[in-house]
Amino acid sequence: MNGFSMKNVMKKNVMTIALFAVYVLFIILAAAIKGTNMLDPSVVTSLIEQNAYVFILGAGMLMCMLTGGNIDLSVGSFVCFAGAILGLFSVENKILNEWWGTWETQVIDGKEERVLVAAAQPLSVPVVLLIVVGVGLAYGALLGFLIAYVRIPPWIATLAGYLAFRGLGTQVLTTASTTNAISNFPKPLLAIFSGKLFETGWGVMNIPCLILGLVGSAAVIFINFKSRATKVRKGYQADPLWFVFLKSFLIVAVIMFLTIEFALDGGIPVVVVWILAVLIIYGIITEKTTIGRHFMTVGGNAEASRLSGINNKRIMFVAYLNMAILTIIASLVVTARTGAANSFAGQEFELDAIAACIVGGVSAYGGAGTIVGMVVGATLIGVINQGMSLVGVDQDWIKIVKGLVLLGAVVFDIMSKKGNKKQ
Amino acid sequence: MMIIATVIVVFVFYFITNGKNLNPNSIDALISQNAYVFILGTGMLLCILTGGNIDLSVGSVVCLAGGVGAIMMRMMKGIPGLAWPVAVIAMLAMGLLVGLWHGYWIAYVKVPPFIATLVGMLAFRGLANIIMKGEAVEVDNKAFLNIFGGGSDCYIPDFLKFLAPESSLNVTCFVTGIVLAAGYAVFTFFNRTRLIKKGYKVDSFVAVIIKTLLIVAVVIWFSYKLAGYRGIPTALIWIALILGIFAYITTKTTLGRNLYAVGGNEKATRLSGIDTRKVMFSAYTLMGVLSGFASIVNIARLQGSTPTYGVGYEMDAIAACFIGGASAYGGTGSIGGVIIGAALMGIINQGMSLASTPVNYQKVVKGIVLIVAVLFDVIMQMKRKGGKKKATSAAATEKGGANA
Amino acid sequence: MAKVLLEMKSITKTFPGVKALDNVNLKVEEGEIHALVGENGAGKSTLMNVLSGIYPYGTYDGDIVYDGEVCKFHNIKDSEKKGIVIIHQELALVPYMTIGENMFLGNEQGSKWCIDWYKTYAEADKYLAMVGLSDSSKTLIKDIGTGKQQLVEIAKALAKNAKLLILDEPTSSLNETDSRALLDLMKKLQREENLTMIIISHKLNEVSYVADKITVVRDGSTIETLDAKTDDISETRIIKGMVGREITDRFPKRHDVEIGDVMMEVKDWTVYHPEFSERKVCDNISINVRKGEVVGIYGLMGAGRTELAMSIFGRSYGIGISGDLILRGENVTLKSPKQAIEAGLAYVTEDRKGNGLVLSNSILRNTTLANLGGVSKNTFIDKDKEYEVAVEYVKKLKTKTPSVEQLVGNLSGGNQQKVLLAKWMFANPDVLILDEPTRGIDVGAKYEIYCIINDLAKAGKSVVMISSELPEVIGMSDRIYIMNQAKIVGEMKASEATQENIMACIVGVSGEASADSKGSEA
């Protein structure tokens, strides 16, 4: 039973091929038009760092979309709110002082005034993290309950969140600080979510980074070949050896490319750890666990899913609870990178996450989609963003192109489904 | 139901703001500041009726069309008489184009409305920014401002002042109100008599009297308040016009019927020989045109156009529809509901401002009101189904014994 | 001599893989009530869809001659213009609109831009009076029962100036009283308005009551037409025409199967319709099945068999469920499909594409769906084991596919059914309820599925097979229950069963009912 054909592989990986093509295209254009080197270490690193939140939110959005094309419009606003809460408890600010500061009535210039004698101590980093995660869990549970059990259409429920949290977050920030933003986060907090890993300052290349990259590459090669060997041993259909070589080679190339860029830029960005953790965990969940399978079934055919013994409502609940947690992580990453929580944080994040999923082949009706696809989609959009900026294209044109790419991806998805349907 | 809620809310704010919210200038501000919600809400209703579908791009379209209009008027400063009509046509045309674009993708290619309009939201804002080159564009064409409700003179001049020169009220406004109310009452009774003659069934006499009295009272009170400020704002005329036209369309034309039918039961509608794609297409096209119109009113009020306008407008429109009773699954909703929904939201917004509530809490309240309105709708639906179940299964078990 | 209003000549319609209509001829005279009868899938609805323009001109061969001229309908509106109106089994009404609005949907009173609502409601009341409904035309559809909704549909058709009215299973969701009212209305319209009607129905007693002529359709062809004035149109006679075919299908024999104790039993099982909660869809049903036994449940459409199966399977259908469910001798309450699966039940749905399989998923994934625990440890799926299982079942059931990665949506009906069976077999149940397991499948695949059923019995499983094909039920079962209109109306050993005495059970009950016109429960 030979089911392998290069043509099939090409068809399945259209977006990845597009990604490579577009990336190369922009590298050339950037160099030719503006003389900018898109392969410069700092450029590549910022590509990853600036899009970190898309990968993280995209994973959550993927889980929601799998259940039937459902989305969460509130992620951007919640990122803002979560950042505000983070700042509220970890940095000295006016609200905290109101609650926990020591005040005295003193007489100044003949008038009685309330004076702050001792500022409130912000809470320790672990406690703050716990609070923030708690907030995420609470919101996720509420949202999940309303959507899965009360059956409010997801986009309305999350629309309300979109409105409410932007307002709440902004209110917290404006009350807490005269600059309407909170910065000066404690260094340990920033270090967990931003900066570089294993900064050594020796020489041009960061050695630990290189080592990790090599180890990662080796792991990938090993896994690919071992899984093929097992398949052959058990007599299943396996891809031809040369293909496994090619696949491993390409993946290793990408890993080493990133590794070298990171190394030249001073080390692996800390966010990469978070991104990889999220991607790997959700990759495993969607591909290899029963619960991931359940998600895909609910979206594929809700009635068949129910009659096969799956609890559809619980799956929906988990989808939104999960999204909220990932939003918290994204918020931490974003706040740490900019070093401040401000009221513009998170704008259009939901669009980016949804676009990443759709361009990455996640079905708008549910039931199909992978983490890898989402990553490709997110990267493609990120590359288009960065590439167009570097070439000197106006931000607004970039927005338009983004929109058109999204539209194109959906239409392509719909058309190809039509073609596949049998009479 | 919602009407009662509105009245209650008005009273609540009356107490909180020491009566400020019922001042003539507050009422006037209520109208001019929420004009765009009434207009966009009307269009959004059409889309929601077809099955809970929405249009997320209206805010961006308002901004885009507004920018186009403002720039055209600036370009044609030398020909004042021509400037604003051309601009108005251009803005409506812009809205129409967007509507056609969305209509095509949604109705014929079957792109989920959500995504298609999300794309529009992104792309059209980008386009708007490009056209306006990131800067604000002033609109100072007097004729335009006066006609569409901007600046300080956008009121119908008091040409009936001579009737009561001593009065502090705007006589034209008050008189118009009285005339309209009287005319409505007369028309209602005449019509009823005519229908009875034809042999048609009509509502009970008492019910008609009560309804007419209520409406007459509201109209007169309203015109009295407005007369206490500056008279009839031109914006009100446009709002009334649009609401009136679409109230007619939704209740008295085949297109209107079809919108409700598609949302109520798409299969049944198709089996009745109606082309559901055309219906969807019409809904989104009209939404586009209305967005264009909203942009006219918008730049008039704000006397200019900025690339940041329109943010959040779609949410206001959607909220107005739902609070006014539209169903999230389509098939139910009315222009009357939109009026109440928009008015309620406007009243809450204004009340909070007058009570000096921070702007951000207003956003939160908006979100909560939206969820409560939807929750209410969902729970009512569940109760209806559930109640029926419980009542009849009890009866059935009784019957079951008797049947062999 | 009455004039011939409609003549359908040599109509042939094929769908990919199956010939739905084969040279069908139908003649209907003006002012007559003409009944079309036949088993499920015989082609009656297809024929009417051709007539009404749902299957437009060009998608069928043959001619429709209406009122003397050859007609080429491209859509519903074309046929309606001629006065041919079809009322589908699934009522085409919008629940949140009023009766008046629904009646004139697509046919608005007044002009396109100015609907005259007063006229609309007045006209609506007029037609409602004609059909005997006293409700106001301003009532919402969702607030009236199905019986009345059916009458609204007829009123709607009359408002379209129908000259030829087609009713597809008009009484399938109605109780006795409402059905009788509808039939009497038909007779009244025939008398007073000279309306010509074609009725498709499974309820043979009703057909006998109301039809002037009866055309029997079987396997896509018209077998015979009976004339009420000259022929015997008793139900027994009609049935003979409907099923009288030779049993040419061969059914694999089962040998050496020990039939053991009772594995599953239901006693006094009663279920109500979830939306029309006064209607019983299962009425005091008591059946049982033993280990190693194949029990067939035969019935005409609307009998309530699927409802019975689904309500047993974890209460996945119906409300107000009462009665006992006894598994392995113990009384159990199964409140969800998951509990049912864990208790050892499996339900193979009758609509494999709609709610049985996930068409966009592979054979691999569909096979393990009901029992992911069997190929996973601590929620981690063992992909290799899963692959093994899928391949094993493909081999066992002889599913034709190049690989288990093939999407189920691309398989033929027979192979899809096999994947569905594989899924439930892998869940390792003790009781399998198969709902129409060979519907829409070619003869060769059918035989293979019969073999699979035999293997299941041999392995000691209990199989309940719901089927509308008499030969299949007789050929494959050890015992047969006959169900009609929510009740069990007969039970017999397969060795004693013949097509005639099975049908007699069905006729027997409805014969009583029509004689006494009793009660209001269906």
Question: If you had to describe this structure to a student in words, what would you say it looks like?
Answer:
The complex is a heterotrimer of chains A (423), B (404) and C (522). Chain A is mostly helical. Among the domains of chain A are: 208 residues, no CATH class; 73 residues, no CATH class. In chain A, the strands form 2 sheets. In chain A, strands 1-2 form a two-stranded antiparallel sheet. In chain A, α5 packs parallel to α8, α9 crosses α15 and α12 packs across α13. Chain B has 2 domains: 308 residues, Orthogonal Bundle (ABC transporter involved in vitamin B12 uptake, BtuC), CATH 1.10.3470; 75 residues. A two-stranded antiparallel ribbon of chain B has the order 1-2. The C terminus of chain B is likely disordered. Chain C is of the alpha/beta class and 522 residues long. Helix content of chain C is 34%, strand content 27%. In chain C, the strands form 6 sheets. Chain C has a 6-stranded mixed beta sheet with strand order 6-9-10-3-11-12, with helices on both faces. In chain C, α4 crosses α5, α8 runs antiparallel to α17 and α13 crosses α14. Chains A and B meet through α8, α16 and α18 of A and α5, α13 and α15 of B.
